[in-house]
């Protein structure tokens, strides 16, 4: 298991790092680091965890995560990684808050950038025309070096700071309460749920895995995930159901039972609670 806090991915001689990822799966380990991170998915899909946000990810997704915000991208194709069958591709950009100097963010000219960094502490995902513009800019950055690269990174940050085409991900007031031992334990829980969410999941079984009583585990999970374990499982199931409805064009009943729900009534209730729309409305939005 990787440590929650890793050494900096940025050499001391560099202001930032931008690189192309081409691997069987994206790093699935629940972790956080002091560097800010812009990430674009070029190929792959799965479930994305940022703070207390749980959402499906797909090709074209672009996110901006702030300093010490826990995150992981768990690919749907993880079981195939040993055979190197399913590859995931993306671009990641790392930079530190002070990459322009210790005092830059205190200047009047940097107010908009400082506000952007504050927003990124909840995680941001970009949509619409901004996402399309950023895709080209991010791909161009990995071809640049030196001052040209720094100026281009600033243009990316300028674009992000001026747009309204974004969603904040983690809940208001979310704070990272994790330690290294916690990230390993939470990753173990996440991995178990992702593998077994289509079946009935017993709280007692998960509590036993973490060497806790069910009551202690429920309290522990609520503190670190900012939601109940039951709510978390429902979010994973609804995320999978969304992919079945849109990508596999399944009917509502099939999506319900193939996602681990036992009744249509509970599925419809949880779907509306999590997505703010009914399954039928969700399909209609995608022209289905």
Automatic annotation (TrEMBL):
Key words, A-Z: DNA-binding, Transcription, Transcription regulation
Superkingdom of origin: Bacteria
Any Pfam family hit: Cupin_2
Xref: PROSITE patterns: HTH_ARAC_FAMILY_1, HTH_ARAC_FAMILY_2
SUPFAM superfamilies (UniProt xref): Homeodomain-like, RmlC-like cupins
TM ranges: none
Domain HTH araC/xylS-type residues, every copy: 187-285
Gene3D superfamilies hit by this protein: Homeodomain-like, Jelly Rolls
PANTHER family per record: ARAC-FAMILY TRANSCRIPTIONAL REGULATOR, TRANSCRIPTIONAL REGULATOR MTLR
Official protein name in the record: AraC family transcriptional regulator
Organism: Euzebyella saccharophila
């Amino acid at each position: 298991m990787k440590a929650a806090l890793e050494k900096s991915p940025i050499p001391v001689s560099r202001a930032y790092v931008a690189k192309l990822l081409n691997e069987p799966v994206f790093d699935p380990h629940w972790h956080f680091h002091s560097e800010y991170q812009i990430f674009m998915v070029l190929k792959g899909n799965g479930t994305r965890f940022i703070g207390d946000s749980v959402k499906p990810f797909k090709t074209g997704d672009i996110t901006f995560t702030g300093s010490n915000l826990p995150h992981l991208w768990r690919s749907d194709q993880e079981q195939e990684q040993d055979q190197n069958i399913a590859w995931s591709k993306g671009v990641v950009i790392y930079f530190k808050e002070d990459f322009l100097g210790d005092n830059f963010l205190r200047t009047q000219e940097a107010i908009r950038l400082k506000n952007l960094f504050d927003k990124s502490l909840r995680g941001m995902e970009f949509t619409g025309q901004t996402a399309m513009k950023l895709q080209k800019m991010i791909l161009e950055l990995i071809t640049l070096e030196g001052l040209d690269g720094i100026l281009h990174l600033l243009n990316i940050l300028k674009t992000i700071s001026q747009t309204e085409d974004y969603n904040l991900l983690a809940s208001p007031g979310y704070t990272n309460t994790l330690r290294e031992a916690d990230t390993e334990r939470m990753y173990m829980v996440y991995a178990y749920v992702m593998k077994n969410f289509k079946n009935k999941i017993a709280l007692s079984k998960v509590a036993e895995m973490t060497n806790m009583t069910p009551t202690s585990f429920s309290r522990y999970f609520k503190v670190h995930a900012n939601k109940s374990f039951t709510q978390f499982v429902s979010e994973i199931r609804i995320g999978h159901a969304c992919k079945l409805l849109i990508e596999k064009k399944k009917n509502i009943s099939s999506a319900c039972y193939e996602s681990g729900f036992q009744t249509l009534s509970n599925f419809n209730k949880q779907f509306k609670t999590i997505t703010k729309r009914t399954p039928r409305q969700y399909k209609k939005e995608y022209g289905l």
